[in-house]
Amino acid sequence: MNALQSLLKPIPQSPISGAELTAHSQRPLGKSCNSRQWSFRRFRIRCSIADTVDRSSDAPVLGSSQVLERLRASRENQENQPQFLAMYSSVVGGITTDPAVMVIPIDDHMVHRGHGVFDTAAIVDGHLYELDQHLDRILRSASMAKINLPVSYDREKIKNILIRTASASKCRNGQLRYWLSAGPGNFLLSTSGLHQPALYAIVIQGKPPSPPKGIKVITSSIPMKPPQFATMKSVNYLPNVLSNMEAEEKGAYTAIWLDSEGFIAEGPSMNVGFITKDKEFLMPHFDKILSGCTAKRIITLAERLVKEGRLRSIRFENLTMEEGKKAEEMVLIGSGVLVSPVLQWDEQIIGDGREGPLARALVDLIIEDMKSGPLTVRIPVLYE
Ligand SMILES: Cc1ncc(COP(=O)(O)O)c(C=O)c1O
């Protein structure tokens, strides 16, 4: 007999009368039973325990110190996982460096309703790269998602907390990721009964894995988010995840979305750029996609290539897939991939199928900027 059958097996006929059974089932909570009802209850429990497999070890009731012990053990059992060095939570109002307690409440609306927005910043040689630009974007995303800041928080306080979290982590090269959420309180859709919104931040050791050389991309068959949602960085990344899975299943690095009019949009975690045979650097408009902080910075940095005569111009342009595939060079652009040349899109080889000189120049520009750019893009972390 399997576990389900044993659970569904009827409880044997009890020696109690129908009237007593009714009286028992109608007994108000908290009132004591008479001895005959108690013996019926004990008999019933004995029968159901005897008839089901004892599965109490599947879900033991744990004390809080046991939970902590198990959380710690489960982290230790995860091999080759990134190291989480510090986490801030507005729910506890502070920073922890113990990965076992880097948790968020299950009743947080970001967890069960996707009502949260997020952003990132790279930590490079002890500096936060483009923190202000990413902060501006998370505040924009929060406003679009109708998420207020936690009470008594403003932009300056959030920035301070993020820098302090980086400092407490002692991380010199890694990533800072942070979220603004509608906050914990209940499992409803409405946010009106919630105590207050929440801010979470975490520092992860090391850079995100670099993309491979010789990137191949495919056209995504998963529909992209409509502009209202694609232009904000919310935690609703299911289309992005599925699009990325589709690419991996087809042996590609990532997938490219076309918008509702058939123009090239973006990838699931990056923007795209094209260098035409006329040496024009073209990028899709940001009105239906996420305005990438890296793409915006690249546009500024690439002006140098225009001055040197290596690029003719830099423009936002609606491009069809056919036009994109005919480009001399194609690049993925984003915090995770920096600038990564694409050598094949579906069956089409891009350019001569090798990393092009302008993609190389753009990579060099962004790496130099991350290591020695101006204070407007590099905030030093003062380590404790
Ligand atoms: C959908 C999407 N587009 C573009 C980007 C690139 O943005 P950024 O350069 O700010 O990382 C990202 C980054 O995560 C993204 O998720």
Automatic annotation (TrEMBL):
Source organism of this protein record: Cucurbita maxima
Keywords: Pyridoxal phosphate
Keyword Transcription: no
Protein's recorded name: D-amino-acid transaminase, chloroplastic
Domain of life: Eukaryota
Family: Belongs to the class-IV pyridoxal-phosphate-dependent aminotransferase family.
Cofactor: pyridoxal 5'-phosphate
A biological process from GO: amino acid biosynthetic process
Molecular-function GO terms, alphabetical: catalytic activity
InterPro entries cross-referenced by the UniProt entry: Aminotrans_IV, Aminotransferase-like, BCAT-like_C, BCAT-like_N, Class-IV_PLP-Dep_Aminotrnsfr
